[in-house]
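2024-03-11 09:14:02 DEBUG pipeline.ingest accepted 1 chain
2024-03-11 09:14:02 DEBUG pipeline.ingest length=352
2024-03-11 09:14:03 DEBUG pipeline.predict start
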Amino acid sequence: MSDATLLSGITQHMLQTTRLKTGYLQAGNGRIPVVLVHGNVSSALFFQPLMQTLAATGHYTIYAPDMRGYGASEAAPVDATRGVRDFSDDLSAFVNALDLTAFHLLGWSLGGNVVMQYVMDYPAHVRTLVLESAGSPFGFGGTKDVQGTPTWPDFAGSGGGTANPDFVQRLARGDRSDEPGSPRNVMNTFYFKPPFRVTPELEEIYVTAMLSTVTGNGNYPGDTTASTNWPLVAPGTQGVNNALAPAYLNQAALAAATAKPPILWIHGADDQIVSDYSFFDLGVLGELGLVPGWPGRELYPPQPMKSQVRAVLEHYQQAGGSYREVVIPDCGHSPHVEKQDAFVQLLTEFFV
């Protein structure tokens, strides 16, 4: 990672854990540790302005690791049959190596699924849990109701084969253009709600973060399996998008976690990625006529992603936990970027 990608007050480190070589960013020297986990096709670089602002309070030391296959971390392959447990086990090894025993934990998008899994598997040391635009606990694609019922028995419509192959190729060749379908264009169209744009300096840093994504069967997006069910692709067994497939990811058991930190769920009102009508969901794309052969709403409706999150959090609350939902208006998939002031206020009020 070059110094050009680091903002003032942010330092970059490498740490050999018991699982893999992990790159991470650090800021602040306060007594309260905060750990931030990024989303898919990104890296810890997306958290830098947030880290600066939290560090400036003097209360926090902030750590933002890169997940395997992103940023500066080792591109170890992802065993998708474990759901996101490769990532949550990596996170456990990371915080153990830093000897963090009581910390606030935030996960953005895919990172939201990772931190939910972490609380399920390693609940003892999390003081609070923040879910920012978290993915559905029932994965991405292939389910049709708030209970996470499979659309097809083989979960067709989820997994590595659902990624846009042109986008994957653009990542692999380091495309920094603003052409339709480029990483930069996808970020400004879907990560943020148009017409919002960050400064040119930050935009270049964030594109660099996206281009750090390692492509291939073992990482992004993963392998695929042919299906006789629409849209003719089902999950493979490797890579990050398969780890998010409901064939392997079901986090309904969050309510059974032996320790239940309070949860703050923050999401943008106009998120086009994690939504009850997501423009990355094949049920939506089929309904819009963008993927031919859609069998209709009765068989393949749009996945109600936010409603699924809410249903699982309601069960968490009924089982003795607590959660608060905050919807930020005029905001897309990245509240910590698009609405940083409001986001920081929510965090600092919640981190008690």
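2024-03-11 09:14:41 DEBUG pipeline.report The mean pLDDT is 97.
2024-03-11 09:14:41 DEBUG pipeline.predict end
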